[in-house]
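User: Fold both of these, please.

Assistant: Here is the first one.
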Amino acid sequence: MHGKAMVSEPHFVLYSKLGCHLCEGLEEKLRQIPAVAASLEIRDIASREAWLARYRLEIPVLCWVEGDRETELPRFSPRATVAQIQVRLRRYVRDSD
């Protein structure tokens, strides 16, 4: 690696918490979108104090990560369909379908 930092591939991060039904619902829908499911990382906010402090009252929070830049995405209605979510996320990932 010759001293260079590893750069991760662009991906989605879902800040979530065990027992959060809204989080579980969004994760289930995201996993039905192949291009998203392949790049989805779930972060349990209870595992880090900083995440808990920041997202405690906000979860689920979906972010797009490119390099060291993390962009919080607009919220989805719990009633949004998989197709509606996919349309809104197309600008962040190349649709693999």
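And the second sequence with its predicted structure:
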Amino acid sequence: MIGHLRPAVNTMWILFLLISLAAVSFALSVLRIASAQSATIAATTVPVYEITTRGNSTDPVLPGAIGVQGNGYNDKYPFGEIQQLFNDCPSEISIVIHGWNLTEMQAKERFDRVKMSIEHNQYSIPIVGYSWLSNVTWADAKSIANQNGPRLAHFIFDYKDACKHQHNKDVNIRLVAHSLGARVALNTLKSLNDINDWNTNHYNLTSVHLMGAAVDDELVSKNPSDTGDSFLDDGAVYGMYIQNKVVNFYNLYDPNDDLLKPPYVYSILEGDFALGYHGKQIGIDAPSVAIYKDINVEGEIPNIDDSDGDRKCDIPILNPFAPFSAEICTITAIGENHFGYFGFRSATDGTLIDDGAMNVVVINWRSP
């Protein structure tokens, strides 16, 4: 009987080998497809430009933003030429505005983190980093931020108008502003409204994203009478400019942000609630819901205390019970790191380890 079974066994082994070979072939095909997809992802490159008003930011009669030559953060890549951007007029650009108390090198680091986060989300768009003199006192920085609105507005108008009338291209311009950079962005909208040719040509901004906005929560109102919650209020509101000059306006807020949630830094400095803490103030005369959107991004900010990879806690405080004024880190939970909206950098090799809330920005760009 055993001899009669042998041909059947051989046949089974042959079938098994054929099936195995087919499975291996299929697996290799899947790997090749995955490899090709990975290559496509890796090929997503975001070019970076930079403009700056550092050195002329405190005098409103001086010229506006100028293009920065040289290399980006840690000499990883050369900045693109601003004039070339005006010549090429890509279909869309994103202007990234950093926040308070940053040096030029720290600003470059923020722009690089935005670049890596956008690339991680497989979106290709040129970014223009907007570097302004923010490493001064809080009060001075607020004033300088206001002054930077007209400067950035004129750059935006010049770019939009040149692309339209010299190259016959309609370009989409997107703003992304972090922390006190929100004040620059809001004053930019106001200043665009003051440019006659911007209005007569019916230009607009395709999108604005505020991230952890360090401005009062009533500033997005259309009615100046909604101000007055703090003795520092100046009566300025920007809701009408949002309504008339922006297609989609997103306020990405975080109720657990260590610098914005009361009773900490922002509340102490301003005596009010921050727009980036809980969204717009309830009851104000806000822009249309079709244009203005509050989005809670607390869950997008991981419990990582070092966003820029410098091996230091981003928000330390002095420990009064420790000798030699030792510091303790305040960041111990999801959502607390105010400096993580642009993403998080590895302290080991400088690569991206988390994209912060930039994935939400890209989702909004893809689905306006």
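Residues 1-19, 21-42, 57-62 have pLDDT under 50 and may be disordered.
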